[in-house]
Amino acid sequence: xILDFQRWSMPPVLQLLCMLLTFNVKVDHSPDxxxxxxxxGVAEISRACRAEGMVGSSHDISYSSHFDLCNRTGFLLAINxxxxxxxxxxxxxxxCCNSYCRMSxxxxxxxxxxxxxxxxxxxxxxxxxxASRLVLMLWICASRNLxxxxxxxxxxxxxxxxxxxxxxxxxxxxxxxxxMGAFSGPTAKRHRLWSNCPKFLEGIWExxxxxxxxxxxxxxxxxxxxKYKDKNGVARCSGLKDKLKASQLLGxxxxxxxxxxx
Length: 262
Description:
Elements: H1 2-7, H2 12-22, E1 33-38, H3 44-51, E2 56-59, H4 72-84, E3 85-93, H5 105-108, H6 122-143, E4 147-153, H7 162-170, E5 174-179, E6 190-195, H8 198-208, H9 213-217, E7 225-229, E8 235-239, H10 241-247, H11 252-261
Parallel strand pairs: 1-2, 1-3, 3-4
Antiparallel strand pairs: 4-6, 5-6, 7-8
Helix pairs in contact: 3-11, 4-6, 8-11
């Protein structure tokens, strides 16, 4: 294990953390995990995996505070599942985008010159921590020959994060984008994916990489933002909370598509 970690230039502290975790007798170390879904939300992909007879786990703060990746317990639980995963297992990471999406730029302060944003704000600091820990988990995936997939809305500032940039220097990644509406989503909503498996991305692009204007107009969800002018006459927009939350679902068709590609 340690040789694989070093081959991928994994940060030394993370190597030590993984080694110490393997000696913890209070957690399960049986190597039988076939998928891990982190930031799982309603866990549609996990359900599709289990329907195919796969064994794995779903992690999201909405299930329990023990799955909060901002604390040590949640982070270690996720790492342990990755260490249990057999080679070729599927690992999905849909990072919370509240401080990375375009609509939050004015408050998060993120941009090319300031990728870490306004760190005086708690939600920005938490976003930085989650992104950093996500990349550390990707390092584990790379060292253990796992298939990983990262999802973000198009235009997300996540790719600017310094730790992600560092990761790309050692681990190859491929990217593509797709329309959520092509996978039975209620709105068009463009998303971007990164993965170490180009076949995954090719399949998703073929299924939902493009949509005709007529198909886009036929979607039932309507706009996700409200456009208005403030008291000074400046054009602004704000997200429609309920519609934005619904648009975050990857959809059963995408989940099944991922399994087919696997």
